[in-house]
Amino acid sequence: MKFEGIYTPAITPLTADGKIDSVAFAEVLEYLIDAKIHGIIIGGSTGEYYAHTAQERFDLVAKAKDVINGRLPLIVGTGAIRTEDSVAYAAHAKEIKADALLVGTPPYALPTQQEIAIHVKAVDKAAGLPIMLYNYPGRMGVAMDDEFFDAVADVKNIIAIKESSGDMNRLHRTAVKYPSVALSCGWDDQALEFFAWGAQSWVCAGSNFIPREHVALYEAAVIEKDFNKARRIMTELMPLMDFLETGKFVQSIKYGVEVNGLATGGVRAPLQGLTADEKETLKGVITTLKRNIAQITGGA
């Protein structure tokens, strides 16, 4: 498997009483498939995996597999504090014939580089599926550094890394020192830099509600190799990226999905929804960027 294109970490809609809304979830997936993104991730941070029970996570992945039905690659997030739990999610992904895994550093525990490697190897052994690593020290507390990469050099299923440190020097070093591990953009406002350094994919939460605009940037930079056009598209996306960094990330993504007419049911505690003013601001940002990007791409 090659990670190429736009990969959406899908949201998880909720019912009025806070349970997972299976019907709305299927509608979200169908919307993404229709928008022609390139793959779907279930069990990512945008999907609020940390607020789900283990059974809910198993059920969501199984439901996604049924809905997607081979039309797009399904990538399963294995994030958990305990290695045993990550192994269970990986084993289940293998059981339902998912296409790949997203494997990050266990949060909160602050493992050493060798301990992260042992964790990744245990997950790999449980599933034997292609792996996209997930380096996000801002959430996990620890980065994947050179000692880690040396320790997992023999893990052939590691084929990509979602680099979400926000550290441009780390992007440069990873591209140069580990060319066999494909870069995937995990820091949205650096998408152009990632593509310039050879990244072929972008894992972007915003593609839950403006998928075509994200695909347009990918196609301009990677397929057409037209960075002048890509810069123009990126310029129009920047106000959204700035808004998403104001402290209510998942809430904003879910509201963006609502703007498209899909049900989301809000977020699980401890998160709280957007205020009326925040909703109005975000709606204006979305309207403007969609209009302007359509003018750049010649879309309707």
Give an overview of the whole structure.
- The protein is of the alpha/beta class and 300 residues long.
- The protein has a single domain (5-224), classed as Aldolase class I (TIM Barrel, Alpha-Beta Barrel).
- 49% of the residues lie in helices and 12% in strands.
- The chain has twelve helices and eight strands.
- The chain has helices at 22-34, 54-68, 83-95, 113-127, 137-140, 146-151, 168-177, 191-196, 211-223, 227-244, 249-259, 276-297, and strands at residues 5-9, 39-42, 74-77, 100-104, 131-135, 158-163, 182-185, 201-203.
- Strands 1-2-3-4-5-6-7-8 form an eight-stranded parallel barrel, surrounded by six helices.
- Strand 1, helix 1 (22-34) and strand 2 (39-42) form a beta-alpha-beta unit.
- Helix 11 packs across helix 12 (276-297).
- The radius of gyration is 18 Å and the shape is globular.
- The relative contact order is 0.13.
CATH class: Alpha Beta
Q: Using only CA atoms, what is the Rg?
A: 18 Å
Pattern of helices and strands: EHEHEHEHEHHEHEHEHHHH
Distance between the termini: 33 Å
**Which segments are poorly predicted (pLDDT under 50) over 5 or more consecutive residues?**
none
Helical percent range? 40-55%
Morphology call: globular
CATH homologous superfamily placement? Aldolase class I
Number of helices: 12
| Strand order within the widest beta sheet | 1-2-3-4-5-6-7-8
Report the structural category: alpha/beta
Strand content: 5-15%
Taken together, the total number of domains comes to: 1
CATH topology descriptor: TIM Barrel
- Biggest sheet record: 8 strands, parallel, barrel
Give a count of the beta strands, DSSP E runs of length 2 or more: 8
Could you tell me the mean pLDDT? Answer: 97
Indicate the CATH architecture. Answer: Alpha-Beta Barrel
